[in-house]
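Justification of resources, computational component.

The compute hours requested in this renewal are based largely on the per-chain cost of generating structure records like the one below. Each record pairs the submitted sequence with a full structure-token output. That output is archived, and it is also reused by downstream analysis tasks.
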Amino acid sequence: MNKSDIFWQSYLNLEKEVLEVSKYIYITDEIFVKSPEGVHSQKNSTQLGTFSPHIADLLVNCCVQIESISKELYFDIGGEKERGSSNIWFDEDCLKLIDKKWDTHGKKVIIAAPGFNLTEENNRVITPLKNAHKRKGTFWEKAYQAVKHDRYTMLHNGSIKALIHALAALYLLNLYYRNDEWEAKPEDIPKKDYSMGSSMFSVLPPIVSNLISENNPVYSDSPYIVSYKDEMIEKINKVLLQEQNGVSEYLFNQPEINEPGFIEQLNKAKEKEKENPSNRVIPLWELSKYRVNKSIPKSLPYEKRKELLIKSKEWNCWIYQNNDHIKEDQLNKDNIQQAIDEAGVCYALQIQQQFLDQNGIISALKDNTCKVFIPN
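The structure output for this chain reads:
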């Protein structure tokens, strides 16, 4: 049996007891009020503030489990203090290191139990480990410490809300400790049940984006990330390298690349990139824009520039005409320069496609299986 199975079973036992409590206390944040205008709902915090000795006991049991699993995670990810040391704090030591590794403070947990009627976003979607690395930094830890050290006068802190938040924190820590991973097609990843076996909670699905070009996982409010398998990326990179080499050879043989006007334009583009890295410089695009602007100079009257533009190969290329760009009846003196530049970029993309082995990409994507996992 894995250690994670022991912690997960303890979590499920606690979850079962909390769900049992919900049979007798209606967990909601709204009530319905009758008025002359009819029945309407209004916010209400009474139910979430409900407390009892039994709820306080469950809260303490839950937080004891949080202390235990956070320490196990601490040791597993390289915590420097020795096991058994009396000066290991589950919050300031363990949860702090866990947050440093996984940014757990921003991970969201959705309260998805069918019997819970939580309508407010901050009640339904929570970040239970936000500020958990600080001493009494969370709502649930303050409640835990209060009822543990002074049950008589602090019993009211052992509320339904504190219990749910603590259990959500324990659920999230268990997901990290289980460290599940699986393979799936990109289109199937958002469809998975991300309760991961819980009857009360769920996490958000990971974001599937920007994988083909760089295989860079997107870190988000989900504990999971996505990447393609290495062998598929190797195939794609081989095809993209061939394309890059083809474009480089094409550029090398173009006479305009040595013209002072083009060199000046390229240098200006590079300066803009330094100011804002999102203004990425692609020499082929700059060359194509330079060519079309050279053939349609700003010195010409607007009507002549318009005539030359709509007759140009750049304007009439498939990519420009079949995407959302300025159309002929939308052209005016204020936007014609934008249209000229956009047409140049579109034509550059069309040139670029000549060097891309589409069959190679299709072949590589036949097995487009992704790995979904918690980052190491």
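DSSP finds 15 helices and eight strands in the chain. The chain has a mean pLDDT of 91.
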